[in-house]
């Protein structure tokens, strides 16, 4: 079995744009040297790995949100959007949706990880897990998200459409 992750895809109302959704989602640009010069396919739902034997997916998603962004995940109702497999087959992510209008992106303090950089140099450096997070409309988020997380965005849009009917 591959890596098991959980994350939170926050959404908030927004002025209706050209896509007609009237919603924005919060996604984060992955940190570290590999992602620094990339934009398309270099953004992620705030998420991280967990052990299902020790922690529920929802609890892990809330913990990882706080670790990556430095603020607690918002209180309120969470809807499970599903578990999505990456095309490599080596990773799955269970994604929860929540309303996030109260989240202040200016308060984010990004968690860090250590990496040997440059490779084979013997020198460890710290890098942010994510280097920025932004609210954006779904079409823009789709272009920026890693491919394995795009189905979670689709699931959120279906859920919001069903709720408005």
UniProtKB/TrEMBL annotation:
Q: Name one Pfam family in it.
A: NUDIX
Q: Which Gene3D superfamilies match?
A: Nucleoside Triphosphate Pyrophosphohydrolase
Specify the Nudix hydrolase domain's residue ranges.
Answer: 1-158
- A single GO molecular function, which one? bis(5'-nucleosyl)-tetraphosphatase (asymmetrical) activity
InterPro entries assigned: NUDIX_hydrolase-like_dom_sf, NUDIX_hydrolase_dom, Nudix_hydrolase_domain
Per its UniProt entry, which superkingdom is the organism in? Bacteria
Spell out the PROSITE patterns in the cross-references: NUDIX
Which Gene Ontology terms describe the biological processes this protein takes part in? AMP biosynthetic process; ATP biosynthetic process
The protein, known as: Nudix hydrolase domain-containing protein
Species of provenance: Microbacterium lemovicicum
């Amino acid at each position: 079995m591959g890596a098991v992750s959980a994350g939170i895809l926050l959404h908030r109302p927004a002025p209706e744009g050209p896509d007609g959704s009237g919603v924005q989602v919060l996604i984060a640009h992955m940190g570290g040297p590999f992602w620094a010069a990339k934009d398309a396919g270099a953004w992620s739902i705030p998420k991280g790995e967990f052990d299902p034997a020790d922690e529920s997916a929802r609890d892990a998603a809330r913990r990882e949100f706080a670790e990556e962004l430095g603020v607690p995940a918002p209180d309120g109702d969470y809807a499970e959007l599903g578990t999505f497999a990456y095309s490599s087959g080596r990773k799955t992510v269970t994604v929860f949706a929540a309303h996030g209008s109260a989240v202040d992106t200016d308060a984010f303090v990004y968690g860090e990880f250590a990496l040997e950089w440059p490779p084979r140099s013997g020198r460890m450096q710290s890098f942010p897990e994510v280097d920025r997070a932004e609210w954006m409309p779904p079409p823009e988020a789709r272009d920026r998200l890693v491919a394995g997380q795009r189905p979670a965005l689709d699931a959120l849009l279906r859920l919001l459409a069903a709720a408005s009917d």
